[in-house]
Amino acid sequence: MFYDGFILRFDSEAREFRECTLLPGCNARVNGVDVECGSGFFSWFLMQDNELKGIYEFIVSIKLGLALSGFHDGDCSQRAVHVFRRGEWDRFSGDLKPFKF
Fold first, then answer.
1. How far is it, in rounded angstroms, from Cα 100 to Cα 7?
2. Cα separation, 35 vs 51, whole angstroms
3. DSSP label of 91
4. φ, ψ of residue 91 in degrees (nearest 5)
């Protein structure tokens, strides 16, 4: 389901919620922190999990259930926050590498 500021995804087999992607310009908060283009949200994210992983263009926190894209390269138009259910990134476990910023 696509909306102006976010996308909802569902598992077609289990018929349950799978992931929400918060897009640039979305007015949202995660754990009380505004999701915004500035460095505040990204700084908060980096401090929340000392076991962040990187894969492709994503920074993943299994602990928080969040994956960020576009935050590490300075292009605000490409920033997105992916809120995912437990186990969603398990299939990539062999490819996830420690994230170094």
1. 28
2. 21
3. G
4. -65, -15
Region of residue 89 (left: phi > 0; alpha: psi -120 to 50; beta: else):
alpha
93 occurs within a structural domain: no
Which pTM was predicted? 0.84
Asked whether residue 1 is domain-assigned, the answer is: no
- Long-range contacts made by residues 36-45, C-beta under 8 angstroms, separation at least 24? 37/76, 37/79, 41/71, 41/81, 42/68, 42/71, 42/72, 45/71
Q: Is the pLDDT of residue 101 over 80?
A: no
Residue 76 falls inside a structural domain:
yes
pLDDT digits (tens, 9 = 90+) for 10-46: 988 888 888 998 888 888 888 888 887 667 888 899 9
